[in-house]
Design goal:
The structure is a homodimer of 222-residue chains. Chain A is α/β, with parallel strands linked by helices. Chain A is built from 9 helices and 9 strands. Helices cover 47% and strands 16% of the residues of chain A. Chain A is elongated, with a radius of gyration of 24 Å.
């Protein structure tokens, strides 16, 4: 799952890019620059091959110095779609999940729920609004494999924390939570709670106040 | 559709209460008190019957003065459920509509979507989460008959204004709007827009900022 439409990278290079990214990420900040020789040594590759691969990715090292590690991370993340905030997995293929999958305006906004996950054998294997409904057992491995960062929680309240735990452990960095529970998540995970009851409460309170006002106005004879 | 569980009012009295309410509402603020004789004359009823009916409703007039009009309006509205902010009609029985009908927590909060309306002949006549799906042609008359004050707009954007117009003309006082359009409504109607895209945008922006921060930290070598 690599998002490369405009750059025709050779397949073997593509397959090696995630290894370069992982290595670059693992380097301590004390090593801001890294040579192709060092990379090659760590990954068991020829230094010339390393330079060619990274050049394909748009990274050119400075002679006798090497590659800037932060730039390498940023470029490879973009190239591999590992900084992808536009695609999400949804868990819970009930009516709310279905409404979210079918929400036309997400696509307009450049956002896509690429798959739904559920535990119900009747739902698994079907499609909802053109998106596959997959077994929840596949959730973790697919988050990892596709580098999905955004998770949508549309399961009933009692299941929500478990789903959040699974997602966070697999690498999800942001949860859009429709379950009426406060999720406990690691510090580096963002949670956006979507509470429909809050909107409803606002509306009915305003309406009650308005009706009361009307009666009060009558009582004052205004 | 009268919500009277604890007070056993005689059926003929019940049937007359809406007429008393309508008359009381129609009285100008210049007439803060009204006699049973006047009410009887306006409605073609015996003054004794009027006093008995209003007494059943918990309204006792002061001798030689009469009934306080604002109190009469408030009491009759409560009694008849005409100040009902807890029940709503929903228009648009698609997946979002279905999700809202099936939302377990509305009921916990004392709120109920009592019926859904749609134009799709395949949906009309069915039930969704135990609630009837009725033809949109019946919307106006049922709003009037059941004194529904809250309307939920869950139709696609192009249909939303028309639905809002129908609802407001029939007496809806508060709209919970899930369509991504700004509705034009009469001044005395409250609109609560529920914009899922806003929540999503917040989440993805925070995530993008967080990812950017991570890269920036790497770049600073911290």
């Amino acid at each position: 799952m690599v998002t490369l439409e405009s750059r025709p990278l050779p397949e073997p290079t593509l397959r090696r890019l995630p290894r370069y990214l992982q290595l670059a990420r693992s380097l301590t900040p004390a090593r801001p620059v890294v040579s192709s020789a060092y990379i090659g040594e760590r990954l068991g590759l020829d230094a010339v091959q390393v330079r060619k691969d990274l050049q394909c990715a748009g990274l050119v090292g400075r002679p006798k110095i090497g590659f800037e590690v932060p730039k390498m991370v940023g470029t490879l993340e973009s190239l591999l779609g590992w900084n992808n905030v536009r695609q999400a997995f949804l868990v819970g293929a009930g009516s709310l999940g279905s409404a979210l999958l079918g929400h036309g305006r997400f696509k307009e906004a450049g956002f896509e729920i690429v798959a739904a996950f559920d535990t119900d054998p009747k739902k698994v294997g079907t499609e909802l609004h053109g998106k596959p409904v997959l077994p929840v057992e596949k959730l973790s491995s697919l988050i990892r494999r596709m580098h999905i960062l955004v998770g949508v929680v549309a399961v009933p309240a009692p299941a929500a924390q478990h789903v959040a735990d699974l997602m966070c452990a697999a690498g999800i960095r942001a949860l859009w939570n429709f379950a009426p529970v406060r999720l406990a998540v690691p510090e580096d995970v963002i949670v956006q709670d979507e509470d429909l009851l809050a909107g409803l409460a606002t509306l009915t309170q305003k309406l009650a106040a308005r009706l009361h006002e009307g009666t009060a106005r009558l009582q004052k004879g205004k």
